[in-house]
Structure formats: structure tokens, C-alpha cells
Hints:
2 domains, elongated, Rossmann fold, 40% helix
Amino acid sequence: MINQTHLVVVDDEPVARESLAAYLEREGFRVTMAEDIRGLRGVLEHQKVDLVLLDIRLPGQDGLSFLRELRSRSNLPVIFVTGRVDEIDRVLGLELGADDYVTKPFGHRELLARVRTLLRRTSESYRLEHNNLARHFAGWTLDLSQRCLTDAHGEDVRLTRGEFDILAALVRRPGQVLSRDALLDESVHRDGAPNDRTVDVLIARLRRKIETDPAIPRLIITEHGLGYRFVGPVH
């Protein structure tokens, strides 16, 4: 049976683009290719897209600036697939709201696993099955079914997918120390890198959004050498 899930592969290298697209098509996905952001825009304007595999270094507008623009209006799942290996690029990509980050060269099977994991986590059936409650803490409401955060006045506070996954993991287990590995397992950012800063980046962003003083956190506490812990009553 053909999988109707629609992926877009954006890469200016024809061999890499066509090889990845062919592999994903063999796995049953519907795949559209684009060589730059202009091509990607055309696809997004006229078709429903479920996930984008996006290179960073592209002719014309690069992937980072496009993601910044996209995140102002959409939570469309995006995985960066790039040859840029600098940690600053990885951190910036996550800061801008990328859902995952894979560096070249990579195995097609590994990337396929990441795609499937991200699609599973963003599917409506998964949300309803696993996230059917709301959590309330310090005037905040985290709606696990709608995947949204509201403040004491009922105003929505925008969270990226990674931020939401980390916060949801913490508030489900108040008082419990969760390691970075455990938090990575709750999100889609795992890449096995021992010095990965993904969780630290997401925690810092969450603190800026929910803490009265991010420099002196009262909700998400660092347990040095262990991980992070959510403190305070959650109901």
C-alpha cells in the first residue's frame, strides 16, 4: 500500500537529492524534490506537505533564514540534512525551531528512522492516544492534547515542537530528575553525539518563556551532572 505521507527533499546537489528521494519513495513515501527555497515555496503553496528535509547551504536564501520565516506562521516538521557540522549551526538550527538535525554523510536507514519518529510524534492519533490531559503549574496550562501552552490570562505562548516535548516530559514527572538522554528520548533530536547541546538549548529557551527570571529558575532546576528537574506543584 502506498504511503500518502508527503515529504519534500530540498538540496542543491542533484545526486544527493535524487538518491535520498529515490530511497524514500522505495519506502512508500510520496516525495517531491526542490533545489532551492524558491522551489520549496512553490510546493508549499500548492500542495499539502507533511515533512521537509532541508539543506542549510542553498543558493539564494539559505535554510536557516527560511526556517526563521516559516516558524513565524507554521509548525511544519523540518529536519535539517546538511554537510555543515559546526556546533554553532546545530544550536542555531534548534534555536530557530528545527525538529531534528542530521549531518552528511549519513545512512539512509538512520534518516528514515528519524523521519518515521517525527511523523509518529506529530500525528493526531499519537497525540490523542498519548497526550489526552492538561497540566497546570504556576499559573500556566500545558494542554497535552492540543500541544499548546497558555499563561494565567489565557494567552497562548508559542512553543516549538522540541520545546513542547521537553516541557511535557518534565511536567509529567514533577520532582523527578531526568537525564539529558531521557529528555532526548522524549523528543526527536537524538543523534548520539556525546556532547550534544540540544537539551540545554531547549531548556534555556523554555526558561525564557516560563520563568519569572530565567537567570534564577524556579520551575526547571539544573541538577549538575545529572540532568533537569521540574519543581513545584503540578495538577
